[in-house]
From TrEMBL:
InterPro entries: CoA-transferase_III_domain, CoA-Trfase_fam_III, CoA-Trfase_III_dom3_sf, CoA-Trfase_III_dom_1_sf. GO terms for molecular function: CoA-transferase activity. Keywords: Transferase. SUPFAM superfamilies: CoA-transferase family III (CaiB/BaiF) (SSF89796). The keyword Phosphoprotein does not apply. This is Unannotated protein. The keyword Transferase applies.
Amino acid sequence: MSNAPLHGVKVVELGVWVAGPAVTGLFADWGADVLKVEPPAGDPQRAVFGALGVADQVGVPPFEIDNRGKRSVVLDLRSDDDLATMMSLISEADIFVTNVRPAGLQRLGLDAETLTKKFPRLIYGIITGYGLEGPDVDKAGYDIGAFWARSGLAHTTVAPDEMPPAIRSGQGDHTTGMSLASGVMAALFDRERTGKGRIVSTSLLRTGIYTIGWDFGVYLRFGKRQSTRPRHRNPAPQVNCYRCADGRAFWLLGLEGDRHWPGLLTAIDRTDLAAVENFKNARARAINTEELITVLDAHFATQDYAHWTSRFDKEEVWWAPLNSIPEAINDPQVIASGAFINMTPQPGEAPYRAVNSPVDFDGYTPTYGPVPNLGEHTPKWD
């Protein structure tokens, strides 16, 4: 018998693009049997590169990461027969997950109220852009709109006089997907005690706000917040990034300013700074942060990355590499953490690596993939 934590759990996904499929992608990695229901044209994420003007790319990693290990069945839910097949699949499922807008689900009779009334043991998980109540329930969200822009996250990430950059593709979707996955798991556990399913919902908007809950909490309590400053005005110069002579950069992690200050000065051979009045304690360094950052910038530019980081380690200065994606891929600690896995390719596909999901279970090693072709499987439970 499989020792997968979700072995035997049946999941129906009616998901598109990223957020919904991300939830069930985690479940598939954890051993659940996931039936991905797609329209005849397929989940549009399959063709995301084409939508971006890249039509000849072999493989679609943004689709692969969230859909490996699932079964793909094609149903035209505008057809009465296919809709009946869908209901049959859901009748035997433990979990139903969707990120289709509520109005569309209601037209099909796949809304939360209808399905949980018809199937009382069903865990119904839904991700929306803005929530299940309010004037914008059915408004298009995407993570760049709901998670990033409307939540205040984008505005808070940059200085007040700057316009923010776009979020990285899928970042808000994956964060929100993990939120729903945790809620669905709690509901599944609760069903073991009560025998009853329930509706579990989250939104891109709510999750985005939760990620900056410290800032919101301070504003709700005190009516103010500290605005984001440019790097050269960071009020915590010991928790800042600096570039070395060879172009590589690191991030200092001296959160406890006065405790970490002497070790840093020893590591960089600048104990003379301890006697500078403007740098005498954490408060003084925060007030005079631009002056200190200018001094540190000039000093770190005199030696390469290997020199400074070896000095940090010798003096137990806390720091982290400021990695690019290629640098992270080759970082020994990133590799050791299990961040990347070998995929199970489709017949005829060359072997390739992909990003792992972020949770491990001792004694269980998933089989990653393959990624199903559109309509590869029969719409029935084995």
